[in-house]
Amino acid sequence: ALPSLAFAAAVPEGVWGRPGFELIVAVDGIKGPRFLAFGPDGALFVSVPGQGKIFRCTDADGDGVFEKATTFVQGKEPKTVLQGMQFHDGWLWFAQLNSISKARDTNGDGRADEEIQVLNARDLPTGADGGHMWRALLIHKGRIYTHVGDQTNATDEPIDASERKKLWSFALDGTDKKLFASGIRNTEKFVVRPGTDEIWGADHDVDVIGEKFEGDRKNGQPFTDHNPPAELNHYREGGFYGHPWIVGKAQPNLLFLNNPDLLKYAAMTIIPEWTMPAHCAANGMIFYHGSQIPNARGDAFVAQRGSWNATRKTGYALTRILFEDGHPYGEQTVVNFLKDGSDIKGRPVDCAEAPDGSIIISEDSGNLVYRLRYVGR
To answer: Per-residue confidence at 1, pLDDT binned at 50, 70, 90?
Structure first.
């Protein structure tokens, strides 16, 4: 059955928004909304991995709330993990663990009636369930870019031993496979910085990094609580980003201090352009193109879902990373789903810029999709 979007719930009490912004519930009724994409007609596409579906949502009266949903893509096994989505050349491209496909609606009923699998399990870098299963997807300059993260928390193996932990590209017909970058733990979304061809993404940090020292945790987990940071990376062709041996700003991973090549790997590593709190689980992100939010063009917005691996909770927020001359210089919380430091009111997964310049935020634990607008001070 289709979800009912006839009304919108209220924003949960305790969710904080930065002054000058209005937060409303834009979609209420889709269980487990995860990744987001807009079509050229302003329809919002929402991936629901747990149902193996992608919904198409429309806002007919323009009030900011989506009233209608149709099942655009369905019949995907939940374990195949519908993830990355992007509209390109009239098709909605979408990624699963072992495939990348494109679908389109040719008769205007809101449901895809044509679907083509462009890449399958024989072509793609992974092949196996387990570990970090979310497949990122980016279509840019006639190429498909894709990535699947580490098969464990941090797998100590030769760089060439696995096709995971790498960013690959293909021609749009699925041919011409090329390695783009490596040493990436788990970047769930790649985006292009406005006015450039630069590919950026937020990479998750390693868990339990202090385990060898913290032991029974009689003294807590001071290493793990604060290390390593989540990373905002500019992914360059041929670049190596350290995982699993190097974390943060050329720091050794405490799990692998006996590796004889640590110094070599550190010298190879491109350090993050910006770091975020450890275990904030920075997931989906956008670069802002619009003007609805003043002075935000070119800044990044990042959905931080929060993590289990910190004694004190971190993340659970939409943050804005401020840029100047192509480089980040500051970060501020725009929406905080963590009340009083411990009461979780939501776990944001992805964000997308709507045609009107507002920002749409998916939150899968509360089964809501939000719209954030600037309304002035």
So the answer is: very low
